[in-house]
Amino acid sequence: MKKALFIDRDGTILIEPKTDFQVDSLEKFAFLPKSITNLARIYREMDYEFVMVTNQDGLGTDSYPEDTFWPYQNKMLEILESEGIQFDEILIDRSFEHEGLETRKPGIGMMKNYLAGEYDLANSYVIGDRLTDVKLAQNLGAKAIFLGESEANDAVLTTTSWDEIYEFLKQQRTGRTANVRRSTSETDIQVDLNLDGSGKMSIHTGVGFFDHMLEQVAKHAKIDLNINVKGDLHIDEHHTIEDTGLALGEAFMKALGDKRGISRYGFFVLPMDETLAQVAIDFSGRPWAVWNAEFKREKVGDMPTEMFFHFFKSFSDTAKANLNIKVEGDNEHHKIEAIFKGFARAIKMAIARDLHDNSIPSTKGIL
Q1: How far apart are CA 230 and CA 290, in angstroms?
Q2: What residue spans in the chain does CATH classification 3.30.230.40 cover?
Q3: Helix, strand, or coil (residue 257)
Q4: I want to staple 229 with a disulfide (CB 3.0 to 4.6 A). Which of 21, 205, 264, 345 is the partner?
């Protein structure tokens, strides 16, 4: 879904004159410090549409003639465009406050098309210097960034600095989470995933050794992972393990989104006593699993060894990832634990995100 920044003009991009609140002369025409620099960085590095939303009291009346507004509006846009900044839409309400029109902020009369379902308003922002901008965000179902010295309790950020606005928005890119519910006649699975977590976990599949291995993934990939499974263990472990792999892979695919800025590739060689595991992953959008591992025991703990590959193949299918796994060693427990830990560390490398790079890591432009 699309995301947008709904940006006020006067007091947010331009300095608002304290006398009559109208930018209608050269003497009154000035940009807020760092507004151009940071708008350019946001536009270039992030995936928001830019929408200008401004109240211009009485524009077109004797109190604010058109010919005193447009020269400075156009000059502002010309300067911004010279820095690579373009607005997808410019919404100007001309009414006076006492008229109470729906088109005037904080009303959303001019913005109905943003409510049609194409926009992720919960992760979009209104940026402005008045409490009406904060109220506009509430009316849209968006978040508010308040640019001013007083405190705005309902804003997610209150600041006087465009540098801080940039840094705040930049950090929001790291909020990569997913919740997946997979319910069939054989299993009922809930997976909650935060790729930018710290290793917190709560894992209950009913298969003890499998829980222990999934805990290794959360711990060593530094992801927060909750998995709760109700499976038909009275039959065997197959459906529980397979469907958990499918649900977990789907959660990764959703949390990674369009994969902008991620490393994409992860690879790790992990020793564990006499064992050496090699794991490589590519979140390429194409599922493939290569497995070079043999086990002599039928089970490790209460988990069938034939299900090790099946889990990773299921994960690869729904995560749409290429996965290559190889292990050598003598101790069966060491071998599979080394694989899971290597898998975790490869994931950690692949999902790492460069806050200063918003590109998709592919010459195709899509993954």
Answers
A1: 29
A2: 177-351
A3: coil
A4: 205
Give the pLDDT confidence of 316-363 residue by residue, as tens digits: 999 999 999 999 999 999 999 999 999 999 999 999 987 677 789 999
pLDDT in tens, 88-127: 999 999 999 999 999 999 999 999 999 999 999 988 999 9
Where does 177-351 sit in CATH, by number? 3.30.230.40
User: Cα 19 vs. chain centroid, distance in angstroms?
Assistant: 42
Domain 3-172 falls under CATH 3.40.50.1000 = yes
pTM beyond 0.85, yes or no: no
Distance CA 115, CA 104 (A): 17
The catalytic residues are 8, 10
Q: What is the DSSP string of 157-190?
A: EEES-HHHHHHHHHHHTT--EEEEEEE-SSEEEE
Q: Where exactly does CATH 3.40.50.1000 map onto the chain?
A: 3-172
β strands within the chain, DSSP E: 3-7, 48-55, 89-93, 125-128, 143-147, 157-159, 177-183, 187-194, 201-204, 224-231, 265-272, 275-282, 288-292, 299-300, 303-304, 322-328
